[in-house]
Amino acid sequence: MSALLLDVRDVRKHFPIARAFGRPRAWVRAVDGVTLHVDRGETVSLVGESGCGKTTLGKIILGLEKPTSGDVVFSGGVEAVFQDPWSSLNPRRRVVQIVGEPLVAAGRPGGGRKPSRTEVETRVKELLEFVGLDPRVSRNFPHEFSGGQRQRIAIARALAVRPSLIVLDEPVSALDVSIRAQIINLLRDIQNELGTSYLMIAHDLATVRFLSRRVAVMYLGIIVEEGPSARVFDSPLHPYTEALLSASLPLKPGLARKRIRLEGEVPSAVNPPSGCRFRTRCPKAFDRCAHEVPAPRQPVPGHTVACHLYDQERTSA
Amino acid sequence: MNAPSPAVVLEVKDLRTYFFTRRGVGKAVDGVSFNLHAGRTLGLVGESGSGKSVTASSILQLQPRPAARIVGGAVTFLGVDLITKTDKEMRAYRGRHIAYVPQDPLSSLNPVYTIGEQVAEGMRIHLGMTRAAARERVLALLRVMSIPSPEERIDAHPHQLSGGTRQRVVSAMGISCNPEILIADEPTTALDVTVQATYLDLLRDVQQERGLAILFITHDFGIVANVCDDVAVMYAGRIVERAPTRKLFAAPAHPYTQALLESLPDPTQPVERLPAIPGQPPSIFERPEGCPFAPRCRKVEARCTETYPPFVELEDGQGAACWKLVA
What we know:
- The complex is a heterodimer of chains A (317) and B (327).
- Chain A is 31% helix and 25% strand.
- In chain A, helix 2 crosses helix 3.
- Chain A has 317 residues and is an alpha/beta fold.
- In chain B, helix 3 packs parallel to helix 6, helix 4 crosses helix 6 and helix 6 runs parallel beside helix 7.
- With 327 residues, chain B is of the alpha/beta class.
């Protein structure tokens, strides 16, 4: 039972830098040819380290950035929940205004009539109740709430216009440990009940694994591996994914994987390495990696990897 | 595991640091006791507002003043009482004997000076080293911290370095005067996982080489499980449980620790919903009577809401403050 909701095809986003006389002399290739899809009702996560392009990709999907090239095909509404519930809610507005704003905005342009104040208030109260808040708090200001409650308000706001997709940008990483499980459960309940799809950007791999059906691993502007979350975590194919997993700390003593140490730092996205972008740090790199960009392959059905280690069958065939 | 227990280098006893504000008195740290041992790492875990960072800063009398004041307890460093020291006297200990590595390395680096000048400063002041000698030592420290091309980086300014390298520079500064104790306040929060892993490996190597005692402040149980020898769990200004790390994960004694560990996603045991802890930690200004975890505790009983439970010593260095453990 899968129905395509979001289709991202070969999307690129290059930011101009070092302008000379108004003309850019160089570009940061933040996103450099990403193809990805999200089905209805599923959660797809983007993982990768700072500068890999996951945040820019999220902004493109939200329509906050225009891609330099490529297509984003999407039908339905998209909303967002951000990492920091302290800065993402307007401190001068009451909860009812914050949560109700998308309703008022959606009613205005084109067709829909502007909903009345009572309609908005009723709907806001429903939403607050749905995310586990007392509907009587709708007249309060954000500073009167704890981090977990604020994240619930942000989620209620995102749900107001019943989007088919929510981009979750590090939705629990700013929250206390004892609150995280509450929000993770809430996100799962919402998906079960409303069939909302999530595109989650996160670095906490335990949360990613718990919430996601599929995971895409990004490095320096491209997706190097993508597949069902259990497969990516248990049998990673790309050497970068292996290194990333080996560096994450298991939540029990004595279970640490054998560490794969990566040499050096992530190269600049202005001048990514030739061939495979990961080759400068890859413990398994060989000649070909410097000369040829690895094309995405599916050594296992549904599990894609862009790495020359998986070319053999093709070349010999 | 019956080796002679390593030397105690720091003893914190019944430490109390309160905030005096217009909203009232906030008991941020309300009777905290623990020891640090040479060559071992104690993890101080807790959520925001639990008092873990204020505990760490109070050891060096760096608690946020003037609002926060140490109102009781003792901090003893190798037999010397630090609580009664004046700010000026404390300077002989900060950096020299007890170093502090903050969460955000940028906040402790001066943008105007080079890395070399800043790492050298402590050694010039505390150890009276000449400029040339200190520079040699800085180069050696940058190498210890595996900073690539140290001869170039030594003359770089902080903004020219990546986050991981800055954190290593601050750590190099931390160990420059050969301190007995390193207090690391969530030093890896801003770092990527692969960078964090490398940094933690380095810290462990340096510790083993120098017999450093480390107090590691964190809220991340991954770090606790993989870095700390012992753990103290804080809740609402007090230590509610203390145990060797393996013991804590295998058999947590306090209901708060139990509930926290159960609420973490565990890939080996897929569940539909996580067993979340209801409610939220109390504000430092509105601490309930009795055990502050009682309103969220699934094992709560009448006496829990009346009197704070005593800290009960159990086997193998484990202990917890819970009425359930009192016969």
